[in-house]
Amino acid sequence: MIPEDVLRRVAAAASILLTSHANPDGDAVGSELGFARALTALGRRVVIWNLHPTPSLYRALPGSDAIHAGEEPPPGFPQAFDLAVALECPTLERTGIADALARLDLVNIDHHLGNDGYGVAAWVDPAAPAVGVMIAELAQALGAPLDEDAASCLLLALVSDTGGFRFANATPEAFLAAAKLVELGARVELVSLWLYESQPEAAVRLLGEMLATLERHAGGRVATVHLTHAMFDRAGARTGDSEGLIDVPRAIAGVEAVALFRELGPDLWKISLRSRGAVNVERIARAHGGGGHRNAAGCRFAGTLEDARRRFVAALDQAVRSAS
Predict the structure, then answer these.
(1) 311: helix, coil or strand?
(2) pLDDT tens by residue, 108-146
(3) What is the rounded distance in angstroms from the CA atom of residue 314 to the CA atom of residue 111?
(4) Mind listing the domains of the chain with CATH numbers?
(5) How far apart are CA 92 and CA 228, in angstroms?
(6) What is the 3-state secondary structure (H, E, C) of 160-187?
(7) Is residue 142 within a helix (H) or strand (E), and if so which, with residue range?
């Protein structure tokens, strides 16, 4: 159920800033764009501001070209906005623009484990299969119409965060929400095109670079891959082109947990963790200052690639054993 203070504050705001976590994924971008269209239909002024550019995989979504990206705030900030809404972001710091956002009243809408309810009002529902589902519910409560484009963006959020309805969060609620969005006009074939058949050539070349680093550990049950700046350069790829690549090694028969190490700087790595079934990688990420879901989580690590691989292989091996 939507908290009354969340509904009241969003309904009362005439100008709203939407944001999400750094390196936004499908649930983040789809939820932002779907919510922006719904709020605009109600006559609200809406601006989306993310620290990082939209990954190439999601640039075909309607409205993505209007997303403001970077450390510099959008024009008129903060005076031009009545409210900020953080979507799919377990901590305010994960936005990468927390200091700026602190200048506005902020509503927190999320489904991540470990979200402490920051903001002047919060709606945190770990049982929700995707924030896109929560936004569809909120739009309905606000009386906001969801047109074909808005419904399609929210369906992408749902399909993305459930791994195409393959992950443990593909609950009955997820399928019911998908059916409702399709009833509202969401185009399944278009969402499939966006997610699965719109990869830029650079992303495919980057996949080749990544797969050349594939290693298996713990009797083959744990796999690791990595991406360096040099590999991005050779592929002609940008950061967003790595979105979704970790799912490829997870698809290997017998692999129950995967770590992708992406170079951020000298001895600094972004760690993406994925798992199957009862193998909990959220606990591992949280222990290193990150977070996420049971089967999909992430964090940062300072140290060499060898140190990172040693640390996280051991943790993933233990998680796999604990789930057996």
Answers:
(1) helix
(2) 999 998 899 999 999 999 999 999 999 999 999 999 999
(3) 28
(4) 4-196 (3.90.1640.10), 201-323 (3.10.310.30)
(5) 28
(6) HHCCCCCCCCCCHHHHHHHHHHHHCCCC
(7) helix 131-142
